Amino acid sequence: MITTTFQNLRIKLTTLLVTLILPFVLIVTAVETFAADVFFADTRGILSSEPDLTKIDYRKVGGKTIEKVSLDGIGITNEKTLVVVVPGNWMSKSDCLQYARKFSRINNDRYTSLFWSWRSERENQRIRIDALIKAARSDEQGKVLAAFIRELPSEQKVTLVGFSFGARVVCSAVQELSTNEPTTSGKKPPRINVALLAPAFDAVWVLPKSKFGNVFTASDKVTVHYNPNDSTLHFYPLMYGLIGPRREALGYVGVPRNAITPEIRGKLLQLNASRVLGREHGFWSSFSTFIRAKNSADMLK
């Protein structure tokens, strides 16, 4: 009698454990299922002001391996939009690779994805000094990205997605392409869309005749995600010191409404992301918000 009762109890406990553990096993298995390859470009080998694209380290991220490839191995064609994702400050090479790997689990074959990894690791313990270093470097990195884009097939569809200082890299690249585009190559220029997620540069810089004043004229569409509750961009004006006019970041206030011209209005999609992000200033949360947004679909096809 006691033995039978004990056996029945074991069966019930085993059934309960299977019921509790099996869904978790299935979830883990699903997480390890990769939908499509994602590519990765590390530009840390380029140290001079003249971009040497042969020093870019390309990798294919998918499955359970990370494989070294050439630019030709990425298979960039006009049949698919090339989506270049540029993270912001304090992003190491290994962190960027992990995000690329994470994205490969939810990505699909609608477009070609390339994570652009640049030298943005923290270099100075003083936050303001480190930010000034990365601000200057992001402008230089924009020239590298522009040189890369010039090598793409004629009329290649490109969507540039930049987060924080990565948005500054993107705008620097577009500005470089629009002002210093070679006229002897014979190729037609790329068709560019731009997505700026929590962009860490002056809000007025995207207006005509400003630092990045050609972004709207050189792009088909421009998406801006800003957040007036961003706990990091709240302190952006301190990058210029305590004295002088207060300069707000584009990712904090958005494109100034009183400065939006008819041309800008026709291309701009501006979203206040505070309800989704709260006070967070994080790459993955901002990037995944952009990917999930319905109004991002046109940029990704």
Set down the secondary structure blueprint.
Blueprint: H1 2-31, E1 38-42, E2 57-62, E3 65-69, H2 71-74, E4 81-86, H3 93-104, E5 111-117, H4 127-150, E6 157-163, H5 165-179, E7 191-197, H6 215-218, E8 221-226, H7 250-253, H8 262-267, E9 268-272, H9 274-277, H10 283-292
Parallel strand pairs: 1-5, 4-5, 4-6, 6-7, 7-8, 8-9
Antiparallel strand pairs: 1-2, 2-3
Q: What is the CA-atom radius of gyration, in angstroms? A: 23 Å
On the 0-100 scale, what is the average pLDDT? 86
Q: How many strand segments?
A: 9
Order of helices and strands: HEEEHEHEHEHEHEHHEHH
Strand content: 15-25%
CATH fold-level topology of the largest domain: Rossmann fold
Q: What is the rounded distance between the termini?
A: 68 Å
Low-confidence regions = 15-34
**Spatial ordering of strands, largest sheet:** 3-2-1-5-4-6-7-8-9
Please report the first level of CATH classification, the CATH class of the largest domain: Alpha Beta
Count structural domains: 2
The largest pleated sheet is described as: 9 strands, mixed
What would the principal axes of the Cα set say about the shape? globular
Give the class from helix and strand content and strand pairing.
alpha/beta
Number of helices: 10
Helix content, binned percent: 25-40%
What would you say the CATH architecture of the largest domain is?
A: 3-Layer(aba) Sandwich
